[in-house]
């Protein structure tokens, strides 16, 4: 079984995003970038499926500027067999990304696509579901457990208030939640080996997908700052203020 | 121009997010119809028909919809889409699951988790875990939108609107329901709780989290944790509040022994009132706290429980 893992290069989760002075967007100049945390979990799950003998090949794919090859190399170092870079300098929306990925699904015919439930920059939580719709596949979103057997994948989903398990007919699309696994770190020998693994580059505009923007980013602002709080002397004062001033207890 | 809201429910109870989503939908300025898809939802449809501002309720009552599987709900919504300029649902795990599927099938973008309606085409939404607010204009003729319900108010009630039954049934071979496991807890869900009390690395170990239990019981609070506490193995990671965990916005958030890393602040800084208890006066958590108490948590937690 072939597993396709779409991944994304994003701001490192330990870095605070800052808004540009002209409010046109978030400023990513000289900001540390990394693999999106939910994508790390997706790669880990695919590799575990391969280690368990369920998957035979793990293909990582990303869409973005040349620099995103760094994250593909990370995926290869973690254990992916090959990588595909769909190159573009455009800022694409989830629908575009899903359409481009659908072309790769057509080309690679993976039985399972595993991807992060959302990226920590745009916070859209859309691509997996859209890809499932566009490729006519079932979807198992926000997975905390994935079991593949007999042409079916059982996905336990983290839903509000508990867990829901669904059975999807393969081929299918799964998106990862935090509890699915704990991603490993790449070892130095594997990082060296990853440099020799195949990485195919495809120009985004060669895939025949209409990439016309569907939304316009009008402005980006800092969220309203919290007004300065006060330091209380003791528990008694705290409880008193919560009751009489904040009126929340 | 008309708006379709898809109700979020568990067949028995309407999620409060639905009323808030209707509140958001009405701000678009068009008549709002509400679709309720599920099994034995007649009593629910009466509740929805009585929510202030609802024009009519569309009832899709069939066992096929009992589990809200995305493949079926999306096909049902797409079948109704021609009549609507705006399709809206709440950004719960149910809405987040089926709505992008609807958008892709309609070949339109989705605007996720709006916190403000600027006009019928333009919306504000948090990006970078709320560290920035984007104003986004939809260029599609049809808008598909999910709503962050905590940013909108509950609607009042009205004399019941008309109800219309939808006969078409959509089934799907792609997925099937296996089981559901409800979290067994006396305490409210983290994302729905009015009060949240969270512990961080300062709790020192998992056993010490029991110091939060008595306070949580008295306040009807959910218990959360920082990523540091989860990574240290004190508590399971479904308790994690933060950028990669749960995003919460309760009326009262109490951070205990939490330094206030960016990743944690991203998950709780929209709370109405924030209390921080930390023995380090320089901890960044105090910069977002409305009320700070610089003290050893092991001294003040028993005191706080007593004082409530």
From TrEMBL, chain A:
| Record keywords, A-Z | Electron transport, Transport
Q: Which family does the similarity line name?
A: Belongs to the ETF beta-subunit/FixA family.
The record's listing under InterPro entries reads: ET-Flavoprotein_bsu_CS, ETF_a/b_N, ETF_b, ETF_beta_N, Rossmann-like_a/b/a_fold
Tell me where on the tree of life, at the top rank, the source sits.
Bacteria
Put simply, this protein is called: Electron transfer flavoprotein subunit beta
Q: Does the keyword Methyltransferase apply?
A: no
Pfam families the record matches: ETF (PF01012)
Keyword Electron transport found = yes
- Domain spans labelled Electron transfer flavoprotein alpha/beta-subunit N-terminal: 23-211
* Signal sequence, renumbered to the chain: none
